[in-house]
Amino acid sequence: MTSAYRNALLLSLGPAAGIGLGRFAYALLLPAMQADLGWSYAAAGWINAANAAGYLGGAMLAPALAQRVGAARAFAAGLAMLLPALAAVALTRDVAALAALRLLAGASGGVVFVCGGLLAVGLSLRAGSGGLVLGTFYAGTGLGMILSALAVAPLLGIAGATHWPQGWLILAGLSALCAALALLPLRDGLGASVRQAGSRGPTPLRFWRILAGYLLFGLGSIGYMTFIYGHLAESAGGWRQAMLFWCALGLAAVAAPSIWRRLIGGASPERSFALLVATNALGSVLPFLMPGALGLWLSAFLFGSTFFSTVAATSAFASALPQAFDRGRAIRAFTIAFALGQFGGPVVLGWTADLTGRLDAPLMFASLVVLAGALLGVLERRPDAIDGA
């Protein structure tokens, strides 16, 4: 194992904590919290919106933090902020307090994701193996999903909905372990070469098509992540089937660097983006086009492997930009576009579900939105064709 790959593997535990445990694990705990606290879907939506708003704020703040203190210190600060935000959820039943804590967790996740992405881009440029390094870093979120499913789903499935506070404490403990390991590469001075020099250069709006496509990808894909676990938990397979499916999503994300390595590292970044997003759209609609076990597990493989690989493709796009562009600014633009999509997605898709009274309609609509994002990626110009003037 090369030092670059080892460092990428350790760094990937940052998004495992900040995103896999800190953001997406909420979907596992939400049904129990709703049942125990008597939440309406509107209340649950506000909590989720607070987390998305925090993530957006953290993503916007991250480049300034990287410029001021360096990407490595900002990455570490984001992880440190995450742990109390998760643990404190177990101590309150107040909706406003819970929303504030989820906002804080979202902000920490945004800082970890953007600053960790800067570290991964710097590592990939030094190692000359961009596809593998970037894919490994972003696949860490899948590991966080696996950990959360194995730890939280049995607790709630066996002990009952009232044990959701213990679930949050478990998430905090797992995040602490991941954070400690994720910080190890920083002792080698990894972040020294990626301190931001400022937000100069051409505006990221010069590549607005892929940014808009990424926004649509965030809007559509979050519908799948929001609805699929609860849908499966309420089906005949119960929480065990839902847990295994969530683990399958995570495993597919972990395997994604090997599956899509040649595409991300070899093809033009905008074409990689388009193909990955189109494959994601297919994966999200398969449970409804192919009812049964085959469609379900194919869906987990296609969606899980492409969801986080698409993020790696956007970082590859940023790293391939001409020197005139500020790469940190480009990564922030992608993260903001994705966060805006994820902020609006649950509202739009939830309204569609309420209107139709069915889950298949909003999920199929979400797939069409994601497919539209892929088409925008096809229309994007190659990064080296942008003159940066």
Automatic annotation (TrEMBL):
State the organism of origin: Cereibacter sphaeroides (strain ATCC 17023 / DSM 158 / JCM 6121 / CCUG 31486 / LMG 2827 / NBRC 12203 / NCIMB 8253 / ATH 2.4.1.)
Give the protein's recorded name: Transporter, Major facilitator superfamily (MFS)
Q: Give me the Gene Ontology terms describing cellular component.
A: plasma membrane
MF annotations from Gene Ontology: transmembrane transporter activity
Q: Does the keyword Membrane apply?
A: yes
Q: Which InterPro entries match?
A: MFS_4, MFS_dom, MFS_trans_sf
Q: Which Pfam families match?
A: MFS_4
**TM ranges:** 43-62, 74-91, 103-125, 137-161, 167-186, 207-230, 242-260, 272-290, 296-318, 330-349, 361-379
Give every Major facilitator superfamily (MFS) profile domain span: 1-389
UniProtKB keywords: Membrane, Transmembrane, Transmembrane helix
